[in-house]
């Protein structure tokens, strides 16, 4: 349930959610930045790195819709980074290597992003 309140002097949207999965989308009334594809791939591989994960678990933990999750899972499976056993998606050794590489790339990009913000 969303309630929107408008201030007379300043237009403000106050979002109150009963669904905790949506709460992470907003932070203090500001819309959070979109994730990159690399961050989404890294998150999927990380969730599948344990005993594996179902598509439903991936969708709810990463806050994706089923259509987009299916596209990412198909790509990861086709490339050999994930393997599907029944309803569970499990990471392969190549997927573990890719996860380490993605984490390193994401950390480098975040550092460079903060450095450019400081200079501006």
Describe this structure as you would to a colleague:
With 120 residues, this protein is mainly α. It is built from five helices and five strands; from the N terminus they run αββαβααββα. It has helices spanning 20-23, 37-48, 55-62, 66-78, 93-119, and strands at residues 26-27, 30-31, 53-54, 82-85, 88-91. The protein has a three-stranded antiparallel sheet. It has a two-stranded antiparallel sheet with strand order 1-2. β1 and β2 (30-31) form a beta hairpin. α2 (37-48) runs antiparallel to α5 (93-119) and α3 crosses α4. The N and C termini lie far apart (39 Å). Residues 1-28 have low confidence and may be disordered.
Topology:
Layout: H1 20-23, E1 26-27, E2 30-31, H2 37-48, E3 53-54, H3 55-62, H4 66-78, E4 82-85, E5 88-91, H5 93-119
Antiparallel strand pairs: 1-2, 3-5, 4-5
Helix pairs in contact: 2-5, 3-4
Low-pLDDT runs? 1-28
Order of helices and strands: HEEHEHHEEH
By DSSP, the count of extended strands is 5
Q: Mean pLDDT, as a whole number? A: 75
Strand order of the largest sheet: 3-5-4
Query: In what range is the share of β-strand residues?
Result: 5-15%
Structural class: mainly alpha
- Coarse shape: globular
Give the proportion of residues in helices: 40-55%
Number of helices: 5
Ends apart, CA distance between termini: 39 Å
The largest β sheet comes out as: 3 strands, antiparallel
Tell me the radius of gyration. 18 Å
């Amino acid at each position: 349930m969303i309630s929107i309140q408008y201030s007379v002097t300043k237009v403000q949207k106050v979002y109150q959610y009963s669904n905790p999965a949506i709460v992470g989308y907003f932070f203090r009334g500001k819309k959070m930045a979109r994730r990159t594809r690399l961050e989404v791939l890294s998150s999927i591989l990380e969730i599948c790195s344990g005993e594996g994960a179902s598509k439903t678990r991936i969708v709810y933990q990463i806050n994706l819709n089923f259509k987009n999750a299916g596209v990412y899972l198909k790509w990861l499976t086709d490339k050999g980074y994930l393997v599907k056993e029944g309803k569970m998606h499990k990471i392969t050794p190549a997927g573990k290597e890719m996860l380490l590489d993605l984490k390193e790339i994401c950390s480098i990009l975040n550092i460079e992003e903060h450095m450019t913000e400081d200079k501006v």
